[in-house]
Amino acid sequence: MNPFSLLYYVLSVVLYLIALPLLVYLSFKRKYKKSIPARFFLFNNKRFEKEDGIWFHVCSLGEAKALKPILELVKAQDIKITTITQTGQNEAKKYKAEVRFLPYEMFLPFWIKKQKLLVVLEAEFWYMLFVAARRSGTRVVMLNARISDKSVKKYLQFAWFYKRLLSNVEIIYAQSEVDKNRFLALGAKNIEVIGNIKLAGKISKTKEYEKPLQETIVAASTHAGEEESVLKSFLEYKKQVDAKLIVVPRHPERFLSVYELLKRYAKENSFTLSQFSETKNFDAEIVLMDAMGELNNIYNISDIAIVGGAFREDIGGHNPLEPAFFGCKIITGKHFHDQKELYKYVHHVQYVESDEIHKALMAAKDLPPSMVEEKIDLEPVVKKILEV
């Protein structure tokens, strides 16, 4: 290990010791009860069983979903997957693969077992992951790589650090020319633009629900603060249009708090309210979808999709391809920086502030459904990756 990597490693140990009380506390939180013990204490998180497989590292749900068309092209290989979040872990376990949480950097030099190839998706820049994988004899590739508008300034301020990190990467497959130029500015080499691999994913529903007679609006992948903005707009819209609202929070640990918010609004405005997990129907005027894996099924019966994560500056938006595929009229916020590349391919989207959602709902009747006009072929990309 060179002096810089050794210093970085020592700092990671010091930070671990400082954060230890907080990590123990968070381990008891529902959201982190599996991920933190696995990542920071290696609880039920042993090394991969075999060497010489293909290892994919993703962060969370969206990236884990994006793996599907890739894995279909490398069926014969011994596949390993690491994730950061519990939702990513749950999705990754649907594949025929060894699945683990990625341990904290301090453990990686001892935890990593040599593989043929490590494919890191999007913006997972963990220094010890790249260094320890390379030292083990594992070739490293970045796929669907991006640097968002929001974070580019921070990366450039530490370009000296990211140049060291990226020197361990054999090839970077970037989402766009903008991303390529940003990686070049960080000192990266051997970069190829292939577009966003999420355009290659097959979008489908898992269940067929009967479409409600009323106009159906889904508030999809919402975060704290966004539900209230949607509710206020829906109350105004409901005075003029016979409509119902289905709310699908992004994170399952928020189901209860979101239900309490919906209950207050429903009571104050004499609306009927239900939880899907209890009724299994959409008869109420406001429905909380408190079950996982249902969002595409809801898009399939919705007329308008208010896509969350973009009404708050700190989130960066969520995938618009799914509501567009099902023909929803899309309304989203203006802070969609993490999904900017995908929105380039989706037409007829309204981008509004949170206090303009009602106006967008009223305008939707005169707009065509959103649509996606482009796909990418992953086969030549995967072939090149395997030949690196």
In short:
One of its GO terms (molecular function) is Kdo transferase activity. This protein is α/β, with parallel strands linked by helices. It contains 18 helices and 16 strands.
Strand order of the largest sheet: 3-2-1-4-5-6-7
Shape: globular
Hey, roughly how much beta strand do the residues contain? 15-25%
> In which range does the helix fraction lie?
25-40%
Give a structural overview.
This protein is α/β, with parallel strands linked by helices. It folds into two domains: 3-201 and 378-387, 3-Deoxy-D-manno-octulosonic-acid transferase, N-terminal domain (Rossmann fold), CATH 3.40.50; 215-372, Rossmann fold. 38% of the residues lie in helices and 18% in strands. It is built from 18 helices and 16 strands. It has helices spanning 3-26, 35-41, 61-66, 68-73, 86-92, 108-111, 127-135, 152-157, 159-166, 177-185, 226-238, 255-268, 276-279, 295-299, 321-325, 340-343, 357-364, 379-387; strands at 54-57, 79-83, 98-101, 117-121, 139-145, 171-174, 191-193, 215-222, 243-249, 273-275, 286-288, 304-307, 329-332, 346-347, 349-351, 371-372. The strands form three sheets. A seven-stranded parallel β-sheet has the order 3-2-1-4-5-6-7. α11 (226-238) packs across α17. It is globular and about 65 Å long. The mean pLDDT is 94.
Labels describing this entry:
Kdotransferase, 16 strands, 2 domains, membrane, Rossmann fold, 38% helix, alpha/beta, 388 residues, 18 helices, globular, transmembrane, 7-stranded parallel β-sheet
Secondary-structure topology with pairs:
Layout: H1 3-26, H2 35-41, E1 54-57, H3 61-66, H4 68-73, E2 79-83, H5 86-92, E3 98-101, H6 108-111, E4 117-121, H7 127-135, E5 139-145, H8 152-157, H9 159-166, E6 171-174, H10 177-185, E7 191-193, E8 215-222, H11 226-238, E9 243-249, H12 255-268, E10 273-275, H13 276-279, E11 286-288, H14 295-299, E12 304-307, H15 321-325, E13 329-332, H16 340-343, E14 346-347, E15 349-351, H17 357-364, E16 371-372, H18 379-387
Parallel strand pairs: 1-2, 1-4, 2-3, 4-5, 5-6, 6-7, 8-9, 8-12, 9-11, 10-11, 12-13, 13-15
Antiparallel strand pairs: 14-16
Helix pairs in contact: 11-17
